[in-house]
Amino acid sequence: MVIVEPWQTAEVPGPKKAMVIAKPEIVDAMIKRSKRPVLILGHLSAEIKVGDRMLIDYMIDLARARGIPVIATGHTNFALMKKGYAEASILTAVDAGKRLTDPGWKGMDGKGPHDLALFAGLPYYMEWTILSGLKHFAPQVRTVSLDNTYQPHASFSFANVAEEEWRKDLETIIGRKEG
Hints:
Largest sheet: 7 strands, parallel
Number of strands: 9
Shape: globular
Strand order of the largest sheet: 1-9-8-7-2-5-6
Order of helices and strands: EHEEEHEHEHEHEEH
CATH topology: Rossmann fold
Structural class: alpha/beta
Distance between the termini: 26 Å
Number of helices: 6
């Protein structure tokens, strides 16, 4: 059993904490089993470098490879459009979290509620708060933090991992096996 601590000190998540993603294939399986996944991308995805690429590049690859709809928060949509990805819906991060708690919300495309929410590129404290709300008020939605810092309020989260390990894990989730 891996024991991890929240990246942000002095935060107490409570007794129910995220399962650590020990193998990225777990996330791959969750995405495949999910009927209605969604990817919530924060503005930091356009600023964080993972290896020789930006985090946003990995997330675009994931969305395209798996057909996952993207919710762009902040000014993320501008960065997505610069990268040639124009399919994202635009919502604030807090509004996306609020809507995911509503079991009657039909998603951005009107086809039904989302059952899996993947998060990447949000400020740590903001993702922490949104995931806390989802943990308590949206038990029907499984949550996954794809950032390299442990998010205890998610259903699943990477531990605090180094950049190279994170890059390999993201590539495995996307479907690329090269290392």
